[in-house]
Amino acid sequence: MDMIWDFAMDQSDLIINAVKALLVLIVGWSIAGMVSRLIRKKTIASAKIDDTIGSFVASVARWVILIIVAITVLGLFGIQATSLVAILGAATLAIGMALQGTLSDLAAGFMLIIFRPYKLGQYVDIAGAAGTVKDINLFVTELATPDNVQIIVPNGQAWGAVITNFSHHETRRCDLTFGIDYGDDIEKAKAIILQLAAENEYVMSDPEPWVRVTNLGDSSVDITTRLWCEAADYFELKFGLTQSVKEAFDKEGITIPYPHTVEVKRQA
């Protein structure tokens, strides 16, 4: 017991510093999270600040505080900031090679914020991953698919890939193609589509709806309609009008061809 006590007394400074370091880590981590959440809350509430920039600044603030906390903890164990800088300077090449992917993501994060090819809440396709942008921080972009699955895209990949932003423009064109039988009245079918488009609340009058025969298929005459709508109403228009046209065609005797399977019996 005396040996344990003597050892504890000899290492008292180290134990005290370890306790201090633990407290600094806990408090610093809490402050970093609190500041990050506060910045996000304030920027979301402000109409003058873009939510995307607010989210990124919140991420930067969190990491800056954590770096300060890490330097403070090292200082408690006798490692001064100047010594830390000297060590990092000597190991720059090794660290750069080991973290080149992370540093690339960091640099790409700043480029994404500067040029803003997408913002929070927009629906995008990044390198084949499609979803609504939920967060953009220093290293990654977080997407949520329509069925609410989380997708994490490293910023380096996002910046270096083709980005398709479906929400960038306020309006979108909705193209729908309907096939009718060769024996049906083409002008009647076109009139039905135009009438339904005029009655649809999501269809814009300018540019005006466009309806034309675009293809003579193996079993159908294909009629394509091009309609403009608000970007947010795209899917409501597409799904709603598709059903309305089908119901109207059925009512007016317009046939929508579909493949038939004919069974041929072979004689023995």
The biggest beta sheet is recorded as: 5 strands, antiparallel
Topology as H/E string? HHHHHHEEEEHEEHEEH
- The rough form would be described as elongated
Instruction: Work out the strand percent.
Output: 15-25%
Provide the structure class.
Answer: alpha+beta
* Radius of gyration over C-alpha positions, nearest whole angstrom: 31 Å
- What's the number of helices? 9
Termini Cα gap: 101 Å
Count of beta strands: 8
| Order of adjacent strands in the largest pleated sheet | 4-3-2-1-5
Mean pLDDT: 83
Helix content: 40-55%
Q: Could you name the ranges where pLDDT drops below 50 across 5 or more consecutive residues?
A: none
Task: Please tell me about this protein's structure.
It is a single chain. It is built from nine helices and eight strands. By secondary structure, the protein is α+β, with helices and mostly antiparallel strands. The strands form two sheets. Strands 4-3-2-1-5 form a five-stranded antiparallel sheet. Strands 6-8-7 form a three-stranded antiparallel sheet, covered by helices on one side. Strand 2 and strand 3 form a beta hairpin. The protein starts with a helix and ends in a 16-residue tail after the last helix.
